[in-house]
Fold these 2 entries.
Entry 1:
Amino acid sequence: MCPWPWRCDPPFGGALYNVLVTSRRGCTCLVLAALLALAPLVVRAEEVVEAILENGLKVLLLEDHRSPVITLQIWYRVGSRNERVGLSGLSHYLEHMMFKGTPRYGPRVYARLVDEQGGQDNAFTSRDATVYFVSVVADKIDLILDLEADRMRHLLFDPREVDSERKVIVEERRTRTEDDPIGTLAEEFHLAAFTAHPYRIPPVGFMNDIQRLSADDLRAWYNTYYLPNNAILVAVGDFKASEMLEKVRARFGAVSRGPDPPRVTIVEPEQRGERRVWVRREAQLPAIFVGYHTPNHRSPDAYPLEVLSTVLSAGRASRLYQRLVYEQRLALDAGGDYTHLSIDPDSFTFYATVLPDKTVGEVERALMAEVERLKTELVSEEELQRAKNQIESAFLFGQDSVHARASTLGRYELAASWRLRDEFLPRIRAVTREDLQRVARQYFIRDHQTTAILIPVPPAGPAPAR
């Protein structure tokens, strides 16, 4: 289970992937080896049509005629990374407001029209982007293009709707963080790990800021970031690319380009000592997060780190799960996370939930022992190959969904370029055991470590009678 509440949309994979790659003995990965050998052919056979309209809108189109369905996604280059304390949560708040209508399509009309066409729509806000997506039968795509082009620049900001939606967002914040011990711990971890960079800000925003944001704040944010020159349009499905490009040009071409939004230039300073934070609150079990600052896709080390994360924390065959859960019986679960496609350098994290009869100290020592083991011992060839097969199978099975294909293009384009997608599998395959040991020694440094610990406290008793 991923401990980060805002990272629940995996770039690749699905239910089939989860079944196949969590085999404890890894035998499924051996069966998949022949299929995985075809990976470069599968990926590179796709012809992505790329265009930039005169107003700056980046367009990526990929034909997929296996079923009469189209997925359309609009990626806006704005998330909590662009925010500051005092105005946190603006991107997420605006995501909600994008469904509140325009002069042409009134309040709440968007979702109703999509539903009437049998389509499915949703959106999410991350630290790096705000994304809107619709999957619809192919012959209904004209309406979807109309709706998206219209709300790109003509959104209503009725103060009554703003205040009404505030209650929804406050409750969302309460559910994900205030009432969720792991959500609270994750937030405190990022506040400790990042002292300067806005990755410390949660996408949902801080409660005090959510309660203060106004219609004027949202309108200013919209006018700054919701521009064609700050957006990526991705379409995958049953269409001819040349015809789809003309449809996109007809709807979005008239949307005026705006000033380029301000760039985020903050660089997180080097950490010069271990940081620790304790969260005491009502909870069933203690938990611990441990993380280290690591580079993103811009570094060649991103690929060994991706493999290393899989070795350590991907599924029940991973080292952490095997050692802490099965063998030592210290933790209820254990895992981790690493995202090489973040726009700015992020962190490599581990987590574990402590069993009732064990202590946080025991679990932390076991985690650190596994970290040190990586520095002193090479992983086995079998372990390395299993991790590579897990990553490749996740990537390949993700190509079976038009939504996942569009998401893959969008994520890579957001980070740098969709063309990096074609480099991913070859670079993963090139990782060696020595690479894993080298990056463990280089980045898993005690002075660069942040640790967050959840200490359960008993529930508050009823208020005394007067």
Entry 2:
Amino acid sequence: MAKRTSTFVCQACGAVHPRWAGRCDACGEWNSIVEEAAPSAEAPRAQRAGKGRAIDFHDLATHAPDTPRTATGLAEVDRVMGGGLVPGSATLIGGDPGIGKSTLLLQIACRMARGQPTVYISGEEAVEQIRLRATRLGLSDAPVGLAAATNVGDILASIDRADGPRLVVIDSIQTMFVDQLESAPGTVAQVRASAAELIRVAKRRGIALFLVGHVTKDGAIAGPRVLEHMVDTVLYFEGERGHQFRILRGVKNRFGATNEIGVFEMTDAGLMEVPNPSEIFLAERSEQVAGSCVFAGIEGTRPVLVEVQALVAPSPLGTPRRAVVGWDNARLAMVLAVLEARCGVTIGANDVYLNVAGGLRVGEPAADLAVAAALLSSLSGEPVPHDTVVFGEIGLSGEVRQVTQADQRLSEAAKLGFAQAIIPSRRSRRKGAKPFSPALRVTEIGSLADLLPLFGHGLEARRAV
């Protein structure tokens, strides 16, 4: 019987199938299965014989030196990376097309090239195109080595040497290919093999490696999750094209904290750092407008204040609309259900629109109370006091639950001039716990019903109708 020389691999999840099918049984994607050459089943001779070199083991008390880091020249990037780039690390950065990934990495490469050898290798653009972008950004005098290449073997031959570069940017990993594989660039096998070869050389030579990854329509990095497992750091570059702000978010970091964010503003001169994002997100906030509430959130270790906007309007449709930008649709549905079931506030027949101003996406449950306040404000026509910040998690029984790092949230609010805050009640006060910031007048509530008196007159009129 002839030996099978090809397999069928799903390009979405990496599952291997014995034959082609229109739909992947593992992840449910349609038309994602591609035929690829089967890998060799023969094990190396040393492994077949059960022989190998003995490895050394160390105890937990062994002292290891601090991880060396190199500043990128952009403080916001250093914050997300945990203090700077680590030699021998591999960083994967993903984002929507045109969001600014190549611009950010070119700025990093040009700033770091003045202190160490740096190369920028593109598989999507010609060298002249990269030069034009650098000229537009005012970085044309930086000593960066540029190349347009897609063959991983050629790239390794150029960087795998003692006097090679200390920083390498690959834009993008989906355009790279390895000669030994017959599959096309961008397939699961090519992406996995190309990344493995580049990471192997980067760790052996102490090269800081940046890999650009394409994203799917759902916003996840294209290809199987194995690529994210192979690298040390995974960054997502987020933002709406209609907004000038961009968010660099760390979702994985072996050398620092995760969920840290860096904020940038897209300008004609490239990406400019925003050292205090709270002031920027609240800069265009209108005073005494119903449906607006300031939420004090935490992104990584950084407190960030953003404006939550809600609009509740009568619906001419049989099924009212629910539109959300920057928050979770499921949590909005939960907050609306709790307001109706536990507080007697009828919103179901209205269209509901929710927006987090500035293009930031909020994922923590602490925004529940701010969303509820914005909804009640829009429904009643009573504005939330302009100098008030709100945060707290809402449970299904209507209770308001405590959230982490409340002191940091309140300190940031006081620093920006807010005078009062509505927060969850601290039911179990620790002995010796410090009081909240004296600059703020803090109102603690235990249930969502305690929030209704703030919008009393408008809500009573609505409920009477």
